[in-house]
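## tool: complex_structure
## caller: assistant
## args:
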Amino acid sequence: MARVRYQPGEFEEKWQARWAAMGDTTARDDDPRPKYYNLVMFPYPSGDLHIGHWYNYTGADIFGRYMRMRGYNVTQPIGFDAFGLPAENAAIKRNIQPRAWTLANIDNMRAQLRRMGAGWDWSREVVTCLPDYYRWTQWVFLQFYKRGLAYRTKAPANWCPNCNTTLANEQVVNGACERCGTVVERREIDQWLMRITNYADELLNFDGLEWPEKTRLMQTNWIGRSEGAEIRFTASVPKENRKRGQRATVELPVFTTRPDTIYGVTFFVLAPEHPLVERLTTPERREAVRDYVEQARRESEIERMSADKSRVKSGVPLGSYVTNPVSGEQVPIWIADYVLMSYGKGAVMGVPAHDQRDFEFARAFDLPITQVVRDGDEELTDPATWAEAKTAHGWLVNSGPFDGAPAEEAVGRVIAWLEEHAVGMGAVNYRLRDWLVSRQRFWGAPIPIIYCETHGAVPVPEDQLPVRLPDEAQFKPTGESPLRYVPEFLHTTCPICGGPATRETDTLDTFICSAWYFLRYADAHDEAQAWDAEKVARWLPVDMYIGGPEHATLHLMYARFFVKALRDMGLLDFSEPFTRLYHQGMVLGPDGQKMSKSRGNVIAPDAVVSRYGADAVRAYLMFMGPFDQGGPWNNQGIEGVSRYLNRVWTLVTDYVEQRVGGAQAETPAGREVERLRHRTIARVSGDYDGLRFNTGLAALMEFLNGLNRAREESPALVHDPRYAAAVDTLLTLLAPMAPHIAEELWERVGHTESVHRQAWPTFDPALTEDEEITIVVQVNGKVRDTLRMAPDVTEAQAREQALASAKVAAALGGREPRKVIYVPGKLLNLVG
RNA sequence: GCCGGCGUGGCGGAACGGUAUACGCGGCAGUCUCAAAAACUGCUCCCCUCACGGGGUUAAGGGUUCGAAUCCCUUCGCCGGCACCA
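## result:
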């Protein structure tokens, strides 16, 4: 008789349709069970779900299904992060509109997401490019604007000449555009920023969060908190109205982490872009300075991204001098591109003796080097003979009133002096910069601001939102937003005076859309407000967030900032969006390399799903290795997992066939089956809790192997109710990982209610142990024998048996054990 | 350069400080078959031994411990992040 084999194609889609009709994955707000918010990073609708999405979402779905069986009211919402550059680039390339391209992709990806068999809560779907979503993105932006957390300024911005837009600091990688790799330029333009720096300190606090250590560290380093002092140097400059001979004093503050080295300042350096450069330049230096500034502007980003950071320092003197407010000394002012306008005050006090970069600069231009810190009682040597700066903290020398101040105190004493004399203060500086959010592109949420000649920048009244994107635009590489060339969009009237006005034509960074989408999921279709406070209080914060680690300093930091700011506006009553965070690893191509079209090593999910079924793809992805590690795809690996599912199929269908007729009766073999069942429940539960799906599946494989062996040895097992329980447990434990086959077989076994509605099985710890255990006997730490004994064996009994063993006796060679280590139920070590 | 992570069979990977190599892949042998595929069974870290058995092995070296893949130190290699951050 031909056996009916496991053919997932025959039932997977049937169950997907039935589950949709059942509605179990649609979480109700009024469900009395405890809530569980199981979130995945929503996809960008690029066209197709790729294997990385499958990996991410399968792990999340297994966890969500598991939590549902554990009795939680789980929501696992899904949506689309639908604004962004690829749509616009596709529009340019194919001469279509971004909206049509995006919405078609979304339709396709919805079907692919369903084909995973994942328990999505479609009732909460959000699509960020639709007006009923971006209306509220604009509203959120205006709340930030009203409180001064969104502002417009003219400042140097990262400009990608290929994408024709500005970029956030976080989107610049090694001086190049994160998206296209083009070297980023600096441009002075008006732009919108979000005041994330207000929250720098609070963002450093991760208390109560279950986040990967690595991610917390990355954010911490990105924020880059340094403690030190602000010190105000002064310089004399010609008065701006240029009355002959009249001079004014300007302040030149610096930030330093080493105020204790203040007496070692021998020069002063400004960033080439520093606003006071021109005024501080003497006439005879004007030309050289202008050349250097020009050169730095042209080359800086390219040069600064070059790997060789030890390149020779460059710079030119301005011809003028600053006064050191502590020592009263005058030192020359230089500009040099090793000083960055974007960090600190854009100016540094040059202390070549105790800072390596200043040291190199002084060497390059023969500037004096004065030692002001000594390390213990060492003899002072001539700094001209040093190979590098002495950066250790120590005792002050050559430092006027501070001479002899010890390491611990020196910094504090100098700061106290600065404060007392009102020329500086203790200060904290951050590497983090405000978040630049305006993009000179079409396919984003329009910034809801109107410019009026008399009233300036005026926010669009909230009841007039959304500011709709026009249906069509022309895409030309002008460097300006295409919206500028849509007259119906551009021209409007001032909300205050009704006079002629123009709209802001930049759109918002898509990271704004994704910085609050997890709030909208709680109340996705509210037409009256961004979210209902009660619903958000019901569902937030997110209990589990699973997504890639590449967003550590982007989305994950922006979302934290948004939640904290919205909390301070009284719009939320919690401080952190994501309680538990988990990063899945990356699926590599069969060659162990990152998948890419050019390498030809891309695995298309649709193709493998049609060949092996969704369950096999899910299970194989999880079996590949630890979930946070990912690994190379192996075509034979999925064969193996598919074979396993086939064996499950065979075991259960055989059982259904063979149990017919015979009377129910316990068999001796049933005892071991029952123990195996309990042990497996314990293992799989623990593994699912910890997202260790690879070992969870290994346990399920061992379970199946054990059941096959037991039934082979005692065929009467099929009539033993403990075997029936084992079959049920196998399917129940498998259900989160391979939901379709589990459901199909569950029905074939004769159950009428979905396997996914079953309570997660419990286990009795007493039954997870074998009736007889193996005690390892070591002599001097080397294994010499193993003993089969009762689990409650005492040390004396174990010792007696061990000494009776010939192998042990031989190893001991007649000596008496000097010491005996006994680990109950596990091991006996005889030390001779 | 700085910060973090990781090195275990031919391969992916298991191992509360307690029998290293679970589970799977691949390979070898067998059952079934006219044959193949599928399915099933057994073997499969290295060395010595026909065997019984013994010795060795978690990148390399050292240390702590009755006992180390696991903890500590040094070196090498790979991966990720940051990078002239004052």
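## assistant note: Chain A is about 35% helix and 20% strand. The mean pLDDT of chain A is 91. Handing back to user.
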